[in-house]
């Protein structure tokens, strides 16, 4: 009998590789817009993906809405290239990026079959802080039939973000599960390992960059690729203790 009955996933950089949509989508967007088509795309990408902490904190604290944060992030990145724009242009760039980036999300057959196989043994859900609505991403990935909208817990809609304990509790309440019955899987040590462990769940860390554990928390397993969880979770027996994917 499986130890867990519910698996909760992070979305971006866990089930969905951000380079498959954000990086490629932004590069294409920059090249398509007259305000940005002569910019160094790789340099711009690096800046917009690492906005100042002050902007991030305003988003976390609720001082900025999601739209305001996106505008501020675009504005800051453009200023580094000495480009000043108005709100209309910022919104135009953001809209173009969103439409373009979704075209770069495609079905990953290995991931699709993995999630489909997991759904036969576990209940599945998603808990995400992502700035962009997860349902369209899941649709493009071919996973919307498994992760229906009621099983997706999106920080923007709920009004609180990981690692706030309320977002994990919201998912547990929906599925009527105890933390001890639940496994959380994600790439963020803070959001997807520490916080779930501290509310009583187990966690699998998707450690693509092979980083050293930042704290003494011990996850159920550490994998270098999301598909490595097949061997751990679809075997007949589950046991405790840290495991490392190949």
TrEMBL record:
Names of the cofactor(s): Mg(2+)
A GO term, aspect molecular function: hydrolase activity
Pfam families registered for this protein in UniProt: Hydrolase (PF00702)
The entry's keywords: Hydrolase, Magnesium, Metal-binding
SUPFAM superfamilies assigned to the protein according to its UniProt record, in alphabetical order: HAD-like
InterPro entries xrefs: HAD-like_hydrolase, HAD-like_sf, HAD-SF_hydro_IA, HAD_sf
Protein's name in the database: Hydrolase of the HAD superfamily
